[in-house]
Amino acid sequence: MLRIKRDTVVYAMSPDNAPAARAKDGDTILFETMDCFGGQIQKETDQLGTLDWSRINPATGPVYIEGAQPGDTLKVEILLIDLAPQAATVESPDSGVTGLAATEEHTKILPVGEGKVVFNEAITLPECAMIGVIGTAPKAGAISTGTPDLHGGNMDCKRIGAGTTLYLPVNVEGALLAMGDLHAVMGDGEVCVCGAEIAGEVTVRVTVVKGATLPLPFLVTQDAAMAIYSAPGLDAAAEGTTLRMRSFLIDAVGMQPHEAGMLLSLTGDLRICQAVDPNKTCRMEVPLSILDKLGYVFP
Ligand code: CA
Ligand code: CA
Fold first, then answer.
1. Which of 158, 151, 129 lies closest to 230, judged by CA?
2. What distance in angstroms lies between residue 93's CA and the mean position of ligand 2's atoms?
3. Within the chain, how many helices (H) and strands (E) appear?
4. For 62-95, how does the pLDDT look when each residue is reduced to its tens digit (9 = 90+)?
5. Which end of the chain has the smaller Cβ count within 10 Å, N or C?
């Protein structure tokens, strides 16, 4: 299996990034990832204000996938996420939503293991490993790994976990897939600007899909399908993901436009992925059971 080392990272997704490795269509790849702090927070005296900000949000890669051409879709099946034994989270003034009220900076180290994340003596949370940053290169320019957009990136969608399939756009030859910023657990919104930030290893299988009709990025979990959409404000992100799922139901599934809208209103769940990054991200979830009844099969 191809292994991409965690010292091979980028801080922007760009067509100009040199590939860290080349993979074949259908290959399984293991990405070793650093946490979003680049490993700079190891103990509770390590504070956000003292970090080297040029090392924030490293994404491992990029990997060039042979046969991926602009206009194709890259299917990324997330097979396994292994986490390091400890995570870190930080709250600080002016960071995220809770930073609007916070007056002091605090770091918390969270032991992780046996499927659990220890928050404090009273509270232990079930581990729910997810990928915060995952994307392909945009067609032109460089997009910081801190920013989510149509190429994916820092979407901080807690549903992007093991056993799910993420579809990403291929904007340049080889797609240039990169990822990082794992969280051991995170709530929708990521309101203090951090999940349980952690290093780890992600095993994925990559497949190039020709001629797919999906609004990208698009995620299929064990029980739901969802467009993921990012925009400068939450209103625009919410509208964007809703209209993309409407288009999916019409163009890919074959529904009548009015029924697509009605169905989304009756059974779709519009949710916030994160409310704290340079673009905000929302998702509109539709139960897979509904798509099954409509006879839709994912590419
Ligand atoms: Ca993130
Ligand atoms: Ca993060």
1. 151
2. 17
3. 3, 23
4. 999 999 999 999 999 999 999 999 999 999 999 9
5. N
